[in-house]
Amino acid sequence: MTQPTLEYRRAARALAPSRDAIHRAWIAGLSFAVVLVAWSIAAPARGAPDSFADLAERLLPTVVNIATTQKVETRRSEEFEEFFKEFFERRGGQPPHQERRRASALGSGFIIDPSGYIVTNQHVIADADEITVRLHDDTLLEAELVGSDKKTDLALLKVNWDKPLPATSWGVSDNTRIGDWVIAIGNPFGLGGTVTAGIVSARQRDINSGPYDDFIQTDAAINRGNSGGPMFNLDGEVIGVNTAIYSPSGGSIGIGFAIPSDIARNVVAQLREYGEVRRGWLGVRIQTVTEELAEGMRLDRVYGALVASVTEGGPAEKAGIVQGDVILEFNGRTVADMRKLPRMVAETPIGREVDVVVWRKGAEEHFKVVLGELEDEQVAAATPGPLGDGETGEVPDLGLALGPLTPEMRERFGLGEKTKGVVITEVDAEGTGAAKGLKPGDVIVEVDQEEVSSPAQVNERVQQAKDEGYRVVTLLVFRQGDYQWIAVRIDKS
User: Fold this and answer.
1) Choice among 108, 148, 201, 227 that is catalytic
2) Active-site pick, 136, 149, 153, 252
3) In which band, very low, low, confident or very high, does the pLDDT at 246 lie, cut at 50, 70 and 90?
4) Active-site residue, 153 included
5) Distance (Å) of CA 105 to CA 133, 202, 256
6) Most C-beta atoms within 10 A of its C-beta, which of 100, 129, 287, 422?
7) Would you state the pLDDT for residue 482?
8) Is residue 30 assigned to a domain?
């Protein structure tokens, strides 16, 4: 056999992988395999079970049917009542008493304590004179209302029984992901314990039913009578309280909503302890930070809650928070958007001192706030400032004509003596101000968080923003007794 030449051997060695290269490749392959294993452990895909039967069999006894009755007195008109009275008097008798009928309603609930505490919706038991609970074995028990909360539509009942009742447990709704399997159990149309299954369709839904809307949406069938029933995860934990459906026909079309357990658990605990819900109070009225407002406020991203007004004498004012601040963090938690803040505040114990981080004029500031107690009649109100003077003028970059708050202007637009700022007298229909809904009679109080009292000052603030390269200015506008921040794009044409 012919021996390989020296050049051939050298070329072969050059093409062959070195021992170090092989080692490096082996390490890289092992690392990739470790990453795949770690990923599979961290994010397991949990499919649907072959059957929900075992889970349903275990959970059905924890769910109850609720029936309520309400005495309703029928009313007859005065003319008809007088005729009725004369008719019976002519015949020597007495007219019968006004009729009383009983209205009834059906709903669902679930047992959270073997001693007989049951959770349901507030609207299920509202105005009820009698509440009856039917257990899974058809035992009927009279229930007592412990407490209810209209803002979250939750209620807590108590029944007495001579033996422990089967109870369920709360789960953590914040761990629930879109696409997770859930089952709902309830009393649709009064049929009794009914099990349906589906997935979590969406989270954090706001359906304009209350100030703390944060619903879980599901396609599991929910119908009339399911209200107050539980939504379970595959571990058999309650992650929601079925509350509402979207349906043109009144039946399920696969859009149902449940109160997350992370909200319900706290409310129910307070109902059990106090018979009512005691919520923290910050003393501000807030609005959403839009993309344009974030740019106008010089925020690096869209988040937080913009303070539209501060309640005089409230916790926020006492701590130093002012109108125009953007609340970025509350009690160590980031305020991702405006809707999150009311829930954060409400769930914080009254009297607790919390850290609040705000964005003010391009920089973060920190405050210590001692929360008060929210009362139904408390509303946010801003403190008016002194009146300024100024001449009429135009702001072409915003498409606005402005005027000072003279007695004539106040009378023309119905503005009070304490209103401060610059009044809009005309709006160019093609301008950027009109595009944002500004109209004559609106009062500009601040531009980019600086008070203004004349058209000239408004122009100065707008020109300053243009010189600094910004495309948007933020206006604090007073309209019909209320304050609102509006981001208006500067017209650079």
Assistant:
1) 227
2) 153
3) confident
4) yes
5) 12, 29, 20
6) 422
7) 85
8) no
